[in-house]
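Follow-up to my post from last week.
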Amino acid sequence: MLLVEKLGYRHAHAANWALNGIDLELRPGRALLVCGHSGSGKSTLLSVLSGLAPHYLKGELRGRVSLDGEEPARLTLSEWGRRAGLMMQNPEAQFLAASVEEELLLTLRCRDVPARRAAELTADRLERFGLEAIAGQSVFQLSEGQKQKVVLAALTALKPKMLLLDEPSANLDPDSMAELGLTLAGLKEEGLTMVIADHRLSWLDGLCEQALVLENGAAARQGGWDMLKDPDLRKTFALRSIDPPARPAFGPGGGPGGGPGGPTDEARDGLIMENLSFAYPGRPELFSNLNGEFKCGLVTVLTGPSGQGKTTLAKVLCGLEKPGGGRVRFRADGGHAADQCQVILQNADHQLYMASVRAEMDLSLGVQSGKMRKYPETDSILADFGLKELAERHPQSLSGGEKQRLTAAAGLAAGARFLVLDEPTSGLDGLNLRLMADQIRQAAARGPAVLVVTHDLELAGLCADALLTLPG
Amino acid sequence: MPDLSRIRPAGADRLGLAPEVRLGLTLLASLAALAADDLWAAATLLAASGLYLILQARLRTIALAYLFFGAMAMTALGCLWLLSFVFPALKEASPAAVIVPFSRLGVSVNMVLPLALHASLSGLVGTMNRLPIPGLVKLPMLVTIRFIPTFINDFSQLRQAVRLRFRGRAGLLFWCRRPFLWWRIFFMPLVVRLIRSADELAVAAELKGLSAETDFGRAPIILKKADRATLALGAAAVTAASILQVFHAAG
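User reply:
Got it. Predicted complex:
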């Protein structure tokens, strides 16, 4: 049984406690959801339960964590790792080997499993998780769902007692989420205790029996899953919906405003794709003969299973990849999108350049106008995205959700005729999800055609004028 | 049961060398490059190691690595030029004194890149276990080798992000007037990603229990024809460099 008593944790050199007075009891074979605002302490709690804090992250720990009487504080990180496996938000970061099979083998050899036994266990895990077909494939070439499966296969090979999962659904499409839910349910039946920190809640209904809502590092609410059915509680703590989001209901393939496949609106300008095809060298076609129009002033949401070419299509539309066939042009003047588009990528780390949040916004506005200076509108844009209080912070010191909002704000401020947002809500709580949806709609209202590439049907429901689904 | 011997990471690996051979050649070339301070000896090592790289990596990967290496070299030369105003003796340095240190870096790139791209990590760990290397050296070496593909991946994503955000914006004059801004835009996220990736890899190694004491077994080394031929050619190149070092430098 997992027992947490009066747990507190303070990061090294930090003044405030990131976790404070948390009590928890979780029986074997049960799963706990940890939720709350971005920055409420979910990942820190997982770091403590996994032994990373304070073994690796240092800092100050008070209170007690134990699993069947054993405490991480009294074991080495490696010894605790055999009992409690952590799956990080970015599973790729956990790979040390190059191929799937090798990763499993290496994990076992690190745990002193003899070579022959390690090979047998590797074969068993490959079969159990349906990874045989991709055993020799590079770990860098897998889909997010496949990467998670590889990590889970490695973590469970030596039968740990507990699994810790940090935002496992952040990068998954609905089908992959459902598949992950089934995999986890199977592992639970084997007696594994699970602690899952996530913003998306609907896929966890039926998997998690307990829920813990964190606020400022403390347990704000704690109880059974049904507690989350209270809409006031979800609103208070910025939680997302617990009901599976419905696919936005539009006409066949399009939206009310005339997105791709939707009703035509000849007067309105838009980015037209004509017979668009694309294939990476030496690989089968990702898509072929795509036709449609992304209307200016409207939001088109692009969905579809992982690996079907959604991000690639966005790159082709922006001229970053050359299409194998067909063309892309604006209806009004036949111009290309290449020099008139802005793309906000999923990985915010790659798009933050300056020493403060304010300077980052000024850079965007400066590049747009050709003059680098302090812009008076910066404050109001930051306020729109809930970032005004963080204006003087270094962008790289922000939480994942805050970084995502800043890159979106900077990209939207830069202005464009065609605007692409790639998974803009993967790490956002309910409040910021709605904030982002509002900003996307406002950006579209200013004139550009907006394309949102996402798996997040909650976001699609809030902001889509048209829906484009790439076939699986 | 899967055939573990068939696992080979993707890439243009035309030689398919055993990890022991790659590691041995890397150590040999590194030591020889350190010892060689004659221009011709250094050039011999650079050429031989360059050929070794070309046979084992895609041209695009090599170009990317050398682009980064070139940027580092140009930065170092720029600093050297600035320092020469303070220390005029630097202006009188011979070409060999400037070129040889960079050729050592080149040899490192040529030898470490195939190691990182193609040698399997578990194979390397096994090899290292057989070698008398202290655990405290072994573990950072492993994380460093694993770090290289991550770095290449980060670099390529960053290049794409910069293109997407700034392409066609503000005009050439804007950027020409602000070279440090351009420098910052490219290198700031790269440095942050490098630190973050290194930290993530260290965490992954810690959680896996990879440690100085990890024992990966002691399977016998089996050398194929290509392994033996490459070892022989490597030894010949080092011998040639040694001869040039002794006789050409003395002459």
